[in-house]
Amino acid sequence: MPGLVLASSSPRRRDLLGQIGVIPSRIAEPLVDEAPLKGELPRDHALRLAVAKAQAVARGPDEIVLAGDTCVGAGRRILPKADTPDVVRQCLELLGGRRHDVWSAVAVIDGSGRLRSRNVRSVVAFKQLDSAEIEAYLESGEGVGKAGGYAIQGSAAALIRAMSGSYSGVVGLPLFETRALLRTAGYPLG
User: Is there a contact between 104 and 120 (Cβ–Cβ < 8 Å)?
Assistant: First the structure.
């Protein structure tokens, strides 16, 4: 049976894989510059990073490498991974009362070195947010370290009025597409 290398330090991606019965044989943190390129669109950014992360990790004989990236986009603008509460606030102020795209890309390199990838678009709509709701979310601390400054799987779910697309993709890994790519790469799935 081929081993699976998860090219990610995200505990959410590991947990999501567990939901479909996939346990990586090893986890390797890819060293990739995640800064957007000048003029890069959110969909292109997510796919470029997923591929770069998969390619950045050493692959042993017969190992399959899996990597992903999630990017929140407001129009053509790429929202950052919020590293401070101030950035979380800026993201929520921008996203409140509007729809935005979440691009979740996955890349798989099979045992022969062949790369396959998919990019999934989901649309998320926040309710109009007042300052008290933003402050309460900031106090939770959930948004720090998250793309776009929120985690849909946490208390931000109560602020989202609609969503279409891949819920698991918004969390961090589109499971339907991931499973299909792993199966095509020769990874045994039930």
Answer: yes
Q: Which two tokens stand for residue 123?
A: 């649309």
Could you give the maximum distance between any two Cα atoms of the chain, in Å? 54
What's residue 62's pLDDT? 87
Amino acid (1-letter code) at residue 23: I
Residues in a beta bridge with 146 = none
Cα distance between residue 68 and residue 36, in whole Å: 16
N-terminal to C-terminal alpha carbon distance within the chain: 13
Residues acting as catalytic residues: 69
* Residue 1 CB-half CA count within 13 A: 12
Could you tell me the CA-to-CA distances from 105 to 40, 43, 155 in Å, in that order?
Answer: 15, 8, 24
Confidence band, pLDDT 50/70/90 cuts, at residue 61: confident
Q: Which H or E element spans position 64?
A: strand 64-74
Which amino acid type is present at position 16?
Answer: L
Token pair 């998919």 is at which residue?
118
The CATH number given to 4-184 is 3.90.950.10
Structure tokens at 175: 């499971």
- For residue 188, give the nearest of 30, 21, 12 by alpha carbon: 21
pLDDT of residue 20: 96
Q: Check: pTM over 0.85? Answer yes or no.
A: yes
Three-state secondary-structure class, residue 119? strand
For residue 135, give the 3-state DSSP assignment: helix
Hey, what are 138's tokens? 């900031």
Which residue is it, tokens 């798989």?
Answer: 108
